[in-house]
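Standup, Tuesday
Yesterday: got the pipeline producing structure tokens again.
Today: sanity-check two examples.
Blockers: none.

Example 1:
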Amino acid sequence: MSQPILRFAPSPTGLLHIGNARTALINWLFARKNKATFILRLDDTDLARSEQQYEQAIYEDLKWLGLTYDRIEWQSKRLQEYEKAAEALKASGRLYACYETPEELEFKRRRLLSQGQPPIYDRAALNLTSEEHDRFLKEGRKPHWRLKLIAEEISWKDLIRGDISFDGKNLSDPILIREDNSPVYTLSSVVDDIDFGITHIIRGEDHITNTAIQLQLIEALGADSKDFIFGHVQYLLGEQGESLSKRIGSLSLRQLQEEGYEACALASYLAKLGTSEDISPTLSLDQLINEFDISHVGRAAPRFSKTMLDRINTRLLHHQSYNHIQERLAEEGLHYIQEEFWNACHGNINKLLDLKNIWNICTQELTPRIEDASYLEEACKFLPLEPWSSETWTIWTQAIKEKTGRKGRELFMPLRQALTGEDHGPEMKELLLLIGREKVLKRLQGKVA
């Protein structure tokens, strides 16, 4: 086989969600692992729903996730190619005109279902006389065009699901050209895949029936269906096994980015979700490429857990060195965070923006939270003079303990609350150094500092 060529083909009719992102990531990892070409193809032939803002969002979201592409193709710029393909199919007798209205087709569909039969088109249009064709046209009816499928077995070895086969007689002749003469996805996608030399088509399991139809269409257009390798990934489900489609808006890449998740954490999760591999954070996409194996992608529908994503994001940040995170800090407007501060605090954050709150606690004015004023007054007496070290907190609290007899939470919590306003956070032995003696004294005394 020649060099593999893959494509990711979103429609710019909305924001990319995690299902799209997982499909894109699997294609990208497969492409980069196999030194293949990776094409971004925008399926933008639906002019009524396609919007420039969503196209731009696709570029930005893929960039955020770290998925680069070798070139971009727009279906809206290839309408003439689809028209040529349609004319060739008409000339060969594989594409035929139909005149049923949507209401008539719906009536036929319901009747078949009520009889317990699959809603397969009855090919009534193939029996129309030339006079009937003329009459429909005079009535103002514009034809839609269907591909005449061949009643034969259609089979392929799926990259993910193994051997799949369909009986052509159980498939309904698909519409390829709408009444307005615009191409349906089935046609435009196959024409592009042939013209671009696509070798591997990895997409959602909702396209399995499409694949059976497209294999016949590939042959009808004069190409060899054996040149194409298909793989169908499972739908993502929610934590309780529910469909994600009901709340997909809250799981768009844009939303997850705005919520402060690290792109590498999401990529780590999506790359391993539904595989036999352990899900753990990786520090780079290069590591994911090295570890990727399409044969590890399972057939069962995996469950996407926001809780698990939180854990991965937290673990990723806890293992980041300051040198590795500097660029990300700058991107989040946290360029002022220095290595000492990062080393003291990163083990206690879930997202990068948590650092801002800790930074403000240490450097900005804070109204202290006084729960036991007399105890804090006593604590002031034992506060060591500067310079301080990482041992200062232990020395100070040991002296307070010996004087007051307090221990554990009763000893530490009033101090943390007064100095930070919080019940939890980074180690106080680290924060004490960052806050400084002057602020510590004032806060213990109940003053804004």
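Example 2:
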Amino acid sequence: MDGERLDQMTKTLAAATATRRRVLRGLTTRSLGFALSRRGRADTVAKEATARGRCRKKKEDCRGDNQCCSGVCKRRRCRRAPGQGTCTVEKDTCRAKRIIPCNNKQFCACFITARGTSFCGDQERGRCASCTPNADCVEVTGAGSVCIRSGGGFCCDSLGSTCITPCRARATFTSGSVVTNERRWERNGQQSL
């Protein structure tokens, strides 16, 4: 709508007692109220959809691994997966073909392991490898590594699997010093950068 038509509409609506400013304020308030009510309904619908068909969180009832956000259901309860961090089975960097960050850390991304569990891995320390159990990856990328399902984007398409290390703390430089956790990693003989 152009300015002239809006001006004409406000003049018509403002006929006798209301000012143009008051009419515009009323239109704006109604539009904003409508938008917020639609957003509230969308939030409610999203929550209901989550309860009905999306993954279930830790300690919620489950009947199978595929119902849990972690991909782990034990004794009819969803449990955390090792190295899960902030990831869920609905977040997979390989499937999305874009980086889905996790743990609020640079270079950390969400993946799905060969076992179907969610995993927060260090995207810079992954290696294309033919793997099935996680044990295959220990030789390739070191202790704590897991085998993830590949499938495009940032992952190894040709092999169908990738070995990746868990997301670890990285060095943060502040006034020339390195964060204490990084020093611990270096003392244990593990390179952190």
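Quick observation on example 2: The longest helix spans residues 20-53. The mean pLDDT is 71.
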